[in-house]
Amino acid sequence: MGASKTESFSFEQNEMATLFKALSHPARIAIVDYLLTVDSCICGDIVNELPLAQPTISQHLKELKNANIIKGTIEGTAICYCINPDTIDKIENHFGMIRHKLKNKCC
Amino acid sequence: MGASKTESFSFEQNEMATLFKALSHPARIAIVDYLLTVDSCICGDIVNELPLAQPTISQHLKELKNANIIKGTIEGTAICYCINPDTIDKIENHFGMIRHKLKNKCC
DNA sequence: TTGTTTTATCGTAATATTGCAATATAATAA
DNA sequence: TTATTATATTGCAATATTACGATAAAACAA
């Protein structure tokens, strides 16, 4: 064993787990943070911003892109990455649901 | 290589990454879901609810506990787990911040 | 005490993630 | 065309995660 038993869980559960997994690394949190501080959706100077090698950043960007947390558009030789607000909405809604269910609970 | 370069990132970035990592597995999402559906904070019949062996559930519960997403109180031989609303708050605040910074952005 | 029930831990195999050097690809410039 | 720049992919070593059988520990009952 060792692999996750994803087939045992619902689509929604797997979907949320995938979103959280994409955000489960400090470098990827830092990338999201950085994309939020720059006013325009600046591209690969993320490599200059973070203490990781270019292939490593590229890999983290790919994971964020696969999870739909960011999207990238080609601009000449560069690629412009930015946050996907729809996915942020989806995560916020999930916590809204949790918050709602948590009302009138003990503990 | 292979280990995360956690020391290269801020406390907050590591903290959020740790929270998301705790939620990055469908079984742990399912545990949180289940704890939200039961009215009282029911304990280890999570084992009966999920298609995973007892040691595996115990391990997942430990990770959720370490991340402060759930807390457990001893009740005789059983242990009663429930959601920690403070941690839910913390995550919601993080997305509140993202939402706020995302206002007036292009892409 | 012994037995029962419930949860945690140990040990280990299978698999996944992280990080980077080397290399490849894509778009533009000269 | 060749060069340059920016990003992606490959390959691999180090490490982490997942899952579970076996076993231990903790709380109570008889």
TrEMBL record, chains A, B:
Which keywords, in A-to-Z order, does the entry hold? DNA-binding, Transcription, Transcription regulation
Residue ranges annotated for the HTH arsR-type domain, each copy included:
8-103
The answer, when asked if Transcription is one of the entry's keywords, is: yes
The family database entries (InterPro entries) matched by this protein are listed as: ArsR-like_HTH, HTH_ArsR_DNA-bd_dom, HTH_MetalResp_TranReg, WH-like_DNA-bd_sf, WH_DNA-bd_sf
Keyword Transcription regulation attached: yes
> Which protein is depicted?
Metalloregulator ArsR/SmtB family transcription factor
Q: What is the lineage of its organism?
A: Bacteria, Pseudomonadati, Bacteroidota, Flavobacteriia, Flavobacteriales
